[in-house]
Structure formats: structure tokens, C-alpha cells
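Researcher: I'm preparing a figure for a lab meeting and need a structural model of a single chain. I don't have an experimental structure, so a prediction will have to do for now. The sequence is pasted below. Please return the structure as C-alpha cells so I can convert it later.
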Amino acid sequence: MAPGNVQDNVRTQTLAPIMTGKGVVLFDCDGVLVDSEPISLATLVDVLDHYGAPLSLAEVAARFTGRSSAAPIEHIRLETGRDIALEFKPFFYERLFARYDVELRKTDAIDTVLAALKKRKIAFCISSSSSVQRLERTMKVTGLGHWFGTDIYSADFVLKGKPAPDLFLYAADKMGFRPDQAIVIEDSIAGVKAAVAAGMTCIGYIGGGHYAGHREDASTRLYDAGADIVFDDMRDIVTLIEQS
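Model: Understood. Here is the structure written out cell by cell.
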């Protein structure tokens, strides 16, 4: 599907079929539930520089958005020959969480989306490349934890992270649904590819701060990765739910 204007795509297509037969929504966290990617990407730039494997912000965004910490750890190993697997997360998280406590915000209208799903009795969960530790901090800082309870699934739970389908298949199974009954909401190419590989409908979200100034290009890239539809405003998800 070739994207044009993002909002026009959302509002002119028949949205109801996307939700037909679906029983669960799998939310990515960073860049979807919370506007965390500008914070985490900037922090990662600093951390890679510290370890002697520098990349620009644009390179970090292109290579690591939607990926687990295994990806930058491997980059550092290839560039420097150092295995910093044990020390990477504590070093990164100390800097990241200090910024989270001051800067992290939940995505506009996400509470409205979750309330609409709950009203329509559509199940939902988190399926994120982030670690359990990072997800716990995110839920605490933003106050989103009460919506999800224990229905929070991390890449820590599976052998292969996104773009492999393992996490989405694991989460859907734990929630009691088949892949064809699941919708994934993702902001990254890796996440979209994982949803497609899992045989799930995928909605791309490009409203996060990391896509500011280049949303049309981001829309094209998510469509090319296999997203069924792309939008940049969570309020459009409410419309989709109400038409289901």
C-alpha cells in the first residue's frame, strides 16, 4: 500500500476490517506507549562514544530502534573487540533512568486508546524489546502499569528478539490468542517485520518524537516493511476501535 498523506490514509481507508476477528492488541512500548525514543537514542549515542564505538544519532536510530540491547553490545564487540555484555545495561540504564525520571512522558491520548479497548472487551498487552527492568521503570514513571498488570512481555522472555517473530508469538499465546487474532502496534522497522513474520496484522505508529520532521519518510519505510496501515495520532486508533 503506497502511503500518501498520513492522516488521509488513516481516515479514507475502511478501518473496520483491520479489527475484524481480532481479540488482542500487542503494543510495543518505546515509541508507541511512551515517547522515549529521543531519550534512549541520545543516551545510546553517549554510551557508544564512551565505549569507543561512536555512531551518529541518525546511525543509532537506523540501526538500533526497536532492537534489544544485544544489538549495540554486538556493535561494540565488533568495533573494539571488547565483550561488555555484563556491564552494558547497568552503565546504560544509570544514565537512561536519570533522564526518564525528568523527561519521560506517555504518548498523547494513549489512556483514551486503552480505555476504548477495555470498553470493547478487546484484550491488550505490552510486547517490547526492552528488558523487564526498563519496562518496570517505564511503567512506574508514566503511571501506565495499572492498565497492563502482569500482561507485559519482554524480549528477555525469548531467545530471539525483533525482527524475529518469537516475542509476538509468545505474547499472543500467553494472552490466549492465535496469531491471526492479534494486532500489533509498532513504530520500528524491526517490529513491523517481526509482526509480519508472526502472521499478525500490523499498525505502524509514527507519532513519536524520534520521527518529528520526517514522518512521511518514516511512513514509507514502515509500509515497505509490511505495515497494513500507518498513522501518527493515537486518536485514530480510537476511531478504528469504535468502528470495529
